[in-house]
Amino acid sequence: MKDKLKLLKEQIEEKRKELDLAIDKGLDAKSIYQINIELDNIITEYIKYERQREILEKYDYILNNPYKKQIISGIMNDVRKEIKNISDYELECYCNNVYVYACLRAYKISEDEIAKQILCRNNIAAEKLESSKCNHIRISKKFNTNISTKYYGIVKEKIANQSE
Known about the structure:
By secondary structure, the chain is mainly alpha-helical. Helix 4 packs across helix 5, helix 4 runs antiparallel to helix 7 and helix 5 runs antiparallel to helix 6. It is 80% helix and 0% strand.
């Protein structure tokens, strides 16, 4: 995410320089307008990624905890037992969703906020998935509910143990 924001900042600066140069050279209005539209599009993309970054970082204090790797590893083991044809990338995305859901729910974060977190992460993952050859697995609602409930309970137990 930070690399993408840095790249977009550089593109904005380059496009601004191009626009300033076009104005200084006295290029026609149509050319200047086209460069300005391109600059606006890059700025719009930058704002989109900046908002995603803000959303993703909002609950870092909850999600980046000492037991994160252990919980995700457990989720991965359970998913691999149930779903044989899942790609590594799909497995990672799905398990992270379950982890985010379980942790935020255990900390009593609202369902709307949890949905926003998962949606943002899935949008980023979808951009990467478009160019991959994943199987686009199907996960039953029952399995999804069971695994989410299981790891919600595990996270609640970890939280309780931390406060003792």
